[in-house]
Batch of 3 targets.
Target 1
Amino acid sequence: MTRLDGKALATKIKEQVRKEAIQLPRRPGLAVVLVGNDSASRVYVTSKRKDCEECGFYSEEYALLETTTQEELLELVETLNGREDIDGILVQLPLPKHLDEETVIQAIDPAKDVDGFHPLNAGNLLIGRPGFLPCTPAGVMDLLDEYGIDPAGKRAVVVGRSNIVGKPMALLLLRRSATVTVCHSRTLDLAEHCRQADILVAAVGQPGLITADMVKDGAVVVDVAMNRNEDGKLCGDVDYSAVSEKAAYLTPVPGGVGPMTRAALMENTLWAAKQRQNLT
């Protein structure tokens, strides 16, 4: 079994981004907005600040109170939309329950939507036009390419249908000529669908969901989820030790898709800066 090392590839991608960024007339700028005190979100935001430093980007962080109103958040987004030195805007999700995520996402200038969640960028992905790709699915595709895994003609099964991972993951695999099945909570006989997959992507958030008997011999298994088990240890949706006996390729958790998500964000921010400086 070959371990798909996202950490190593992310380091390589960020170094390439840094080399390109220092050639620009103005260094790329990223603004990250965090509302509330979600501990996992705080870890992500801290990691993104470090990534920006490694890539030579300018970055700003806005840590807003849990009680921030919708109007206040939208005012900040509008201010950042108008800033010439800010190329990318990332509003960390999830937001507190009293805030409407969809309204906030739609308020971000699509040209600065480095998360790739704005309806305009989602539509571009659907019809195959250039645009920002959601970072996690984009990172997965980078990982497959690094290891020479060509989806063309393969059966791909994506478990999960979120707008952030599942749906765009399916579209990117389809774009690369895979035959794609999307499974979800209402899918009958999930195990049988999974066993047909040459490429299996798990993105649900349920520890141990994908067991060895659900995996085809020699499959490529990508574990997108980041959970904590009963002992508080980080884990994904895949039973790693058991599935590693059957899969040809498998991502670890942590160290697999997570670093690739962050690397893809840096790629998106660089692309945004090039677009806004008319260098593409």
Target 2
Amino acid sequence: MNERQLITVVTPVYGCRNCLNALVDGVRDAFEGSDFEWELVLVDDRASDNPWSLIVQLAKDDSRIRGIRLTKNHGQHLAIWAGFEVSRGDWIAVIDCDLQDDPRVIPELHKKAIAEEVDGVVVDRGEWLDTGFRRLASKWFYGLMETLSGLNLKNNIGNFGLYSRRLVNLLLRFRDKEVFLPLMISLTGLPLSTQRLDRKHRHSGKSTYNIIRLTRMALAIMIRFSDRPLKFSVVLGSLFSFVSAIFSVFLVLAWATGAFTVPGWTSLILSLWFLIGLTLAVLGIHGIYIGRIFAEVQDRPRIFIESTTEVSPPNKT
């Protein structure tokens, strides 16, 4: 290697202020004695434990540490995008701040990427040292997305990985208002590899992803990246039309033979309520897509940055 390559480590910070010192130590240890330069970008996603003061102090103590503070909570994936925007590295690593993934393996990921001539190495999380509920929720989340969106996602793949500058530059060309890193990496079409690494226990804190948040994210991703719900509504409507046509033939035959004497008021009302509910549900699906289109054409900035540890911070992305 003729010159020392720079690796940027991007970390969204939410609910793990107590992890930051250990995270910084882990990143330092990862590159100690290596042929790499490094920088650590800590993105404060406005957690309630107020990590910004600590991030500022860490940046003062080590110029290789940079901090970004968002104006409000934007969510994990948009926080990662904010880190991508300011990253300077030849390679960019993404790692959560809770230290379930070990930053010391980043040089190993780089070695694998170079040996296999790929633009990214994503980490298979292997065996989780987490609660059974958390593992089940994650598996359910990915299964729901695959079923409803038709997208091929591996439920054991998270955000942790190492990505080339070329891949990150392609990611930054996506202007979607909602982003999801594992999926959008695959959408670039660049060659990728996978490294299996078992996850550890959290250094501190707990996951903020509950069933409600996972369901909301799954539905948002489904709407954002797939038109399968629209196709499903067409198939469902066609199916009911076909069943109604067949049922109408039987009703005509029953009337012609005199078997149909007393009209069924209850069945009629129930059928009306059911079909009206179905119609409103289908219209609702189309309305959600129209709402997403409306949000996109407004072209508002996805992220607002309040401040950084540098002199001239960007204000939006």
Target 3
Amino acid sequence: MPKAIKTKKSEETRRRIFDSALALFRKRGFDETTMRDIASEADVALGAAYYYFDSKDAIVMAFYQRTQDELVPLVTEALSHTHSFKQRLAAVIRIKLDYCAPNRRLMAALATHIDPRHPLSPFSEQTRAIRDADTHFFQRALEGSDVRVSEDLALHLPRLLWLYQMGLLLFWVYDRSPRQWRTTQLFEKTLSIVTKLVRFSSFPLLRPVRKTVAELLELIYGSQETSEALA
């Protein structure tokens, strides 16, 4: 069999396993689905499923990566249409919510893995690259906007905005209101507060507050990195 055909067949098998896994995660739930279920759904041998993904966690990591890859052009397009910081911030988060909507049940299951020691945690060492890429969206939203950010806060603000997004996502996955309208209301109201705080943050009188925020973030992320090193 020619190498190109063999490679294409391998990619198709991997994609079929991946798509079957996501379909089962949505239907049955992450914890309830086994690798044997995934292999059966994809119509492949169990050994083949393990050849491409050594665990369900590996499938989720592939899902995280695909999500990030597919969000890049969507965010880039949205940011090209406005310099308004409020609109740019709103676009980044709305795009994420809309993209993740079909996998809301899966994300609700994964939301239980908050401990940074768990590989699927959004705060783990294993998800660092994805977390950094996601944080970069907020850096881009700031850099091309009409808001002025003081130098002492510029390094930390994208992380703060990422944490704001994570809070909204956590509320969203557990929101049982029709079409998650409570999340929509929360987003709209907090968006105005956040964007105003960012604008006000550059005022000279708020320099002590900015310094405290920077110290807190260093403490949080520094403690996390120390815990990972000792684990």
